[in-house]
């Protein structure tokens, strides 16, 4: 009896304990170059993630990636894939051996294989995690039905035209179209959909375009483009865009490195209630980075960040408590 070709068992690398706080920059610095991953992408992969960070690959490749991460102190496991590997959702890791994306059309097509599986809340920062693809399809179907109803209303009442003679775009519907595409891993379509409303000042669409540019999803990575979109949203008071823009200034990514500009945007985000902005502004005040050193004010913002769930802020509050002991 003839046997079909032997299918090699495939594996994924899975983070067991997320890397957070002060450890994250050090881990990224130690592993980014060796793995051939941009630092921004690697930070996003390792922070707040308890899921596979690679697509299905051979055991040797998975063990090599895991070894690099373990040497840097990251707790990871190599897990075999059961069933059809093509159905495994994961954060998109460049194909082994390690290499950076060269921006070619062929590589862009490869990069969009299922996408990284990020599923943001409606008006929130994209977070790690996996949501069953069926929900994305249902949302896409619902949006399609809403769009069909809009078309029917337009056909019955006549075209709705702007001053330029072009049909007006409903920003809510258009943002939803982009969000549905994003959740399905169709980042090029998401970028095009959001671009139509971001140009008209839709702050959340501007923020999401900045995130796509910062992480290189659906387009070549560009810190400068990310900073431009974040700035557009930040000027409108979008707290998460303010935080991300401050972080770019702090690291000198896409913009000239400036502790003063970083502190300014961290403060804007902090005052708007963004927990990570509160934490980073507290650090700036404690060390005197871009602002005059002010320990009492730093303690205030550490407390605000801790109340909003930033675990690292708790450690600094404990430290302040010890220092104030008689």
Structural features, described:
With 326 residues, the chain is mainly alpha-helical. The protein is 56% helix and 3% strand. It is built from 14 helices and two strands. The protein has helices at 23-35, 39-46, 59-71, 105-111, 133-157, 171-183, 187-198, 203-215, 223-234, 239-251, 259-271, 275-287, 295-307, 311-323; strands at 11-15, 76-80. The chain has a two-stranded antiparallel ribbon. α6 runs antiparallel to α7 (187-198), α7 (187-198) runs antiparallel to α8 and α10 runs antiparallel to α11. The longest helix has 25 residues, at 133-157. The radius of gyration is 22 Å and the shape is globular. The relative contact order is 0.07.
Write the layout of secondary structure elements.
Blueprint: E1 11-15, H1 23-35, H2 39-46, H3 59-71, E2 76-80, H4 105-111, H5 133-157, H6 171-183, H7 187-198, H8 203-215, H9 223-234, H10 239-251, H11 259-271, H12 275-287, H13 295-307, H14 311-323
Antiparallel strand pairs: 1-2
Which structural traits does this protein have?
about 325 residues; mainly alpha; two-stranded antiparallel ribbon; disordered N terminus
Structure summary:
The protein has 326 residues and is mainly alpha-helical.
* Structure annotation, total helices: 14
The radius of gyration computed from the alpha-carbon positions, rounded to a whole number of angstroms, is 22 Å
Distance between the termini: 83 Å
Label the overall shape.
globular
Question: Unreliable segments (pLDDT under 50, ≥5 consecutive)?
Answer: 1-7, 84-134, 158-163
Q: Approximately what portion of the residues adopt beta-strand conformation?
A: under 5%
Main beta sheet:
2 strands, antiparallel
Q: Average pLDDT, to the nearest integer?
A: 75
């Amino acid at each position: 009896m003839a046997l079909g070709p032997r299918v090699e068992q495939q594996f994924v690398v899975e983070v067991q304990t997320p890397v957070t706080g002060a450890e994250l920059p050090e881990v990224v610095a130690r592993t980014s170059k060796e793995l051939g991953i941009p630092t921004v992408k690697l930070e996003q992969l390792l922070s707040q993630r308890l899921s596979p960070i690679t697509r299905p690959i051979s055991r040797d490749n998975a063990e090599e990636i895991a070894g690099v991460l373990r040497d840097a102190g990251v707790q990871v496991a190599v897990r075999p894939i059961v069933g059809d590997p093509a159905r495994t959702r994961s954060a998109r890791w460049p194909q082994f051996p390690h290499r950076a994306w060269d921006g070619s059309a062929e590589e862009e097509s490869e990069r969009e294989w299922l996408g990284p599986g990020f599923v943001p809340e409606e008006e929130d920062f994209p977070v790690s995690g996996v949501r069953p693809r069926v929900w994305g399809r249902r949302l896409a179907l619902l949006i399609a039905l809403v769009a069909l109803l809009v078309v029917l209303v337009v056909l019955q009442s006549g075209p709705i035209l702007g001053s330029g003679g072009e049909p007006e775009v409903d920003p809510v519907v258009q943002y939803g179209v982009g969000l549905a595409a994003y959740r399905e891993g169709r980042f090029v379509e998401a970028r095009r959909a959001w671009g139509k409303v971001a140009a008209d000042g839709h702050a959340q669409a501007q923020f999401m375009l900045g995130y796509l540019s910062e992480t290189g999803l659906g387009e070549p990575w560009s810190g400068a483009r990310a900073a431009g979109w974040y700035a557009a949203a930040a000027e409108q008071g979008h707290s998460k865009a303010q935080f991300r823009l401050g972080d770019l200034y702090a690291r000198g990514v896409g913009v000239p490195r400036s502790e003063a500009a970083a502190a300014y945007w961290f403060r804007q985000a902090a005052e708007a209630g963004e927990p990570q902005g509160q934490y980073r502004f507290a650090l700036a005040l404690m060390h005197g980075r871009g602002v005059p050193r002010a320990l009492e004010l730093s303690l205030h913002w550490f407390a605000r960040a801790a109340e909003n769930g930033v675990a690292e802020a708790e450690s600094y509050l404990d430290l302040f408590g010890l220092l104030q002991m008689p």
